[in-house]
Design brief:
heterotrimer; A mainly alpha; B alpha/beta; C alpha/beta; B: Rossmann fold; 8-stranded mixed sheet; C: alpha/beta; Rossmann fold; 6-stranded mixed sheet
Chain lengths: ~325, ~325, ~270
């Protein structure tokens, strides 16, 4: 319910903002002496751009309901069919990166929490600080440079030439191979923050009175860590899960553009440059939708891991 | 024959980033015999919690034992390895912490938290540990142990949680339980119930109990001996009737007078408020060179500012650290 | 001559919370019709076990919680009819002090800042004046001015409670509500705070409402005790009467839980 309201709000806000931006898709045609003012007028009328704003928003909503999500001037077709394959590709990238990032961050952060004030502590502090300070763009370009120099991984795109002719297994392998570089960029971008957060949460839980009590009862240290500290640390971590998805999503737009991954990012950029209104709105809505999905997932996980929340909702 | 627990000259310091170390426990000696209940009376910050943690080898990183020995059944605990200490904790010596709400893991059911104490010390099957946990829950007065077993801590009342904590401490039938203000955070009627429960369990299992408490009623009813602690030192030791009825040390006197008691109906309001001890406890990082109580003491003597008094043993078997009685 | 109205008059106050466990669960009745009068300069103790509704009543009086029905008159004004800005002057006149001030005091602020903060929020005086007043208040509650720069965590529990009292006094309240403000403090510190409160009451004409589970302690502090049980005041009377002639079974149960103690030594002759 809350999510639906948010979605409606985002759609209205972005619609108005995009519409308020100066110029439209047809504005540049005016600069072309071969196209007459009347033609531009006719085109604008055809696509309803001469209508008042509320009406345009209403029409767009109607097409949203049909799953078309408006009409792209540049492609000359509804936005929906353009969007779905892109959305799938972006999902493939961000979900893989999210999973990998958490699979790395939880064990590493937990291990780090048990190694206070040692060489490992100092090394990890330094390393994560360095990675955190590195701008995303520098990181992405660095990885690209590495790939170009060594030739280990493809530097762009999602598939090789002749992908369509490959057998099924080889096609999966081909995509996975192309995934390596963008996923690495995303994971390296977010893991330092996640690891630090996991470390802090677990260290916090390890300092809790019930952990001291467990130790006082002679519970083995491994069990104290895995059965007492980790479950108690899960609550803040799960809340972070939704946020990490948001961070990765926004970062993936950049990564996709630089590494020519055929996701929402390049489409979004292209649409903005061409002032292709409805095509701009598509990725915005899709991203909002993904974020809501991530947060919903986090809420469900939270209820599953924390009995105190379950009781409140019952 | 040595006592069950023998602490000798134990000194514990806390070190902070800068400045002098804070003296939390200062040359403290005490014995607890098999099956004996020893009450420890003292205000917060006097070092009693540090003492209990030091006995179990659970001091925080900032604290360390400077000197002294801690023997349990004749075994020196200070030189035990981590694994040996772990085997001892919960099995032979248990502890009950003050805040039952905080001593249980909030995201786990309480039954398994009792069973895992058994499992940590016995090579029993999961099922047998569960049964043992259920029987311990019944032992601490739950009439429906199964229901409690499957509850989360937040679904229980404060008194129920403290019963679960007692069940954990008792699960492996330890010889000694250290109890840090086990009833302080509870309602008064719940306090009375738990006081009775502790007494019953103590005699039923022949437990030795080192009971830190302000609850004079509990100490009077349960304790065989009472120790009074001030600024990391024992200032007085004796039987409960001796210490409560006729305290010797000026601090014990002040403390006992300050404790609330049922009001005298005839007394005016001004008379009802107990007279506080003037001043405050010394900063443990800057203890005075003489007796730590000297700055607040109504009976100070010339030597009090020069050196700390030594323990004097009186004819009736009591111990006191004060120049009034020799020192 | 017209009699001065009581400082606080509560009548028929109820508070219901939605029940846990779905919509059809019965509502929890935290307050089931409370009538209470506080005269100026008096002190009353609400005593009850956890869940008896005593804290809910305190929170309703401090207007931190909205009662379901009933009336609260403060100094002749219907408190429940006030909203927003018109309530603000009453927020100054009624101050609430809670258990464990460690969590109620901002750990980043220094002692003097904590005391002067309410004045700053209200825009009283300039910086220098507020600081002077803060030091004065710290002196009043027995905190040396030398500690003005300490932070809450550098103080002991008793000292933090004094700081909380100084902060509450900064706005010159008429009613102080002390909800378990003595819990977790050592007995000798409790005695110190109790005499401090007594002293302040004489000097500033304060009215106290204590809230506690500890009947013995309340018997020492207050003139009058109201015993709460399941959202009702089941018995109310002078301390001496409650202790010698308890009438309600619940009062007797509370008294039975008071441990008998050996007679302490009489204070040595001066």
């Amino acid at each position: 319910m809350h999510g639906l309201l948010l979605l409606a709000g985002v759609s209205l806000l972005s619609f108005v903002l995009v519409e308020l931006a100066p110029g439209d898709y047809f504005a540049e045609m005016r600069l072309d002496p071969r196209i007459s003012e009347a033609t531009v007028h006719a085109l604008r009328a055809r696509y309803g751009l001469d209508r008042p704003l509320p009406e345009r928003y209403g029409r767009w909503l109607a097409s949203l309901a049909k799953g078309e999500l408006g009409y792209s001037f540049a492609y000359g077709q509804p936005v929906g069919p353009l969007l779905w394959p892109r959305l799938r590709n972006t999902l493939l990238l961000t979900v893989t990166a999210t999973a990998l990032a958490w699979l790395l961050a939880v064990p590493l952060g937990t291990w780090w929490a048990t190694r206070r004030r040692g060489p490992a502590d100092a090394a990890l502090t330094g390393l994560t600080a360095m990675l955190l300070a590195l701008p995303d763009l520098v990181l992405v370009l660095g990885l690209l440079l590495l790939a170009v120099r060594t030739g280990w991984f493809p530097t762009g795109g999602m598939v090789s030439l002749g992908h369509e002719q490959m057998p099924w297994g080889a096609r999966v392998k081909d995509v996975a191979f192309h995934l390596v570089l963008p996923v690495a960029a995303l994971v390296l971008g977010i893991v330092p923050a996640l690891v630090r957060y996991v470390r802090a949460s677990v260290a916090d839980a390890l300092g809790a009175p019930f952990v001291r009590a467990a130790r006082a009862h002679g519970i083995p240290e491994r069990r104290v860590l895995f059965r007492h500290a980790l479950p108690a640390a899960a609550n803040p971590l799960v809340s972070l899960f939704g946020l990490s998805l948001a961070g990765l999503l926004s970062m993936s737009l950049l990564v996709e553009v630089v590494m020519s991954w055929p996701g929402l990012g390049p489409l979004f950029l292209e649409a903005i440059l061409a002032r292709d209104f409805h095509l701009v709105l598509g990725p915005v809505l899709a991203s909002t939708f993904l974020l809501l999905g991530g947060n919903l997932l986090a809420d469900l996980l939270l209820a599953a891991t924390d009995p105190r929340i379950r009781t409140e909702e019952r | 024959m040595p006592a069950l627990l023998e602490v000798r000259d134990l000194t514990v310091h806390y070190t902070s980033g800068n400045g002098a170390p804070a003296v939390a426990v200062d040359e403290l000696s005490l014995d607890v015999e098999e099956g004996e209940v020893v009450g420890l009376l003292g205000e917060s910050g006097c070092g009693k919690t540090t003492l209990l943690l030091a006995i179990l080898g659970l001091l925080p990183e900032s604290a360390h034992v400077v000197k002294g020995s801690i023997r349990f059944r004749g075994r020196e605990l200070r030189t035990l390895s981590g694994a040996e200490l772990r085997g001892l904790r919960g099995a032979e010596v248990s502890i009950i912490f003050q805040e039952p709400a905080l001593a249980l893991n909030p995201v786990r059911r309480v039954g398994p938290q009792v069973a895992e104490v058994v499992r940590a010390h016995r090579r029993w099957s999961r099922r047998r540990c569960r049964e043992e946990a259920l029987s311990m829950l019944a032992e601490v007065g739950f009439t429906a142990p199964e229901r409690v077993h499957d509850s989360y801590p937040h679904e229980l009342s404060g008194g129920e949680r403290q019963r679960v904590v007692i069940a954990q401490a008792l699960a492996c039938r330890p010889a000694l339980i250290l109890a840090d203000e086990p009833t302080a955070s509870l309602d008064s009627t719940t306090q009375a119930e738990l006081r009775a429960l502790l007494g019953a369990l103590q005699s039923r299992f022949g437990l030795a109990l080192l009971l830190v408490s302000h609850d004079l009623g509990a100490l009077a009813a349960l304790a065989h001996r009472v120790l009074v602690m001030y600024a990391g030192r024992l200032v007085e030791a004796g039987g409960p009737t001796q210490v409560f009825g006729d305290p010797l040390h000026p601090y014990s006197r002040g403390l006992l007078r300050a404790l609330p008691r049922a009001p005298d109906p005839a007394g005016s309001r001004e008379q009802r408020i107990p007279p506080p001890i003037p001043g405050m406890s010394p900063d443990p990082a800057h203890l005075p060179p003489g007796c730590a109580f000297e700055p607040r003491c109504p009976d100070r003597l010339p030597p009090c500012v020069e050196r700390p008094p030594q323990e004097t043993r009186l004819a009736d078997g009591r111990h006191v650290r004060c120049f009034k009685y020799g020192g | 001559m017209e009699a001065e109205p009581p400082l606080v008059r509560v009548s028929g106050l109820t508070k219901r919370y939605p029940g846990r466990g779905g919509r059809r669960a019965p509502a929890v009745e935290a307050l089931a019709g409370i009538d209470l009068t506080l005269t100026r300069g008096s002190d009353l103790a609400l005593v009850g076990q956890s869940g008896s509704g005593k804290s809910t009543l305190a929170r309703c009086l401090a207007r931190l919680e909205e009662p379901t029905s009933g009336q609260i008159w403060f100094d002749g004004t219907d408190l429940l009819s006030l909203r927003g800005r018109r309530l603000l002057p009453f927020r100054e006149r009624i101050q609430l002090i809670l258990q464990d001030s460690a969590t109620a005091l901002d750990p980043r602020l220094r002692a003097a800042e904590i005391v002067s903060e309410p004045l700053e929020v209200l825009g009283r005086g300039d910086r220098r004046e507020r600081r002077r007043r803060a030091l004065e208040l710290m002196e009043t509650v027995g905190l040396p001015a030398a500690w003005a720069e300490r932070r809450p965590l550098e103080l002991s529990g008793g000292q933090r409670q004094r700081l909380a009292i100084a902060r509450a006094l900064a706005v010159k309240p008429q009613l102080l509500i002390l909800d378990e403000a003595f819990a977790g403090l050592d007995a000798s510190i409790q005695a110190q705070i109790a005499s401090l409160l007594r002293d302040l009451q004489g000097r500033h004409g304060l009215t106290y409402l204590y809230v506690s589970h500890d009947l013995v302690l309340m018997g020492l502090l207050a003139d009058e005790v109201a015993i709460m049980f399941e959202g009702r005041i089941v018995e109310q009377g002078a301390v001496a009467r409650i202790f010698t002639d308890p009438r309600h079974p619940h009062t007797r149960a509370l008294l039975a839980a008071v441990p008998s103690r050996p007679t302490p030594a009489a204070p040595p002759p001066p």
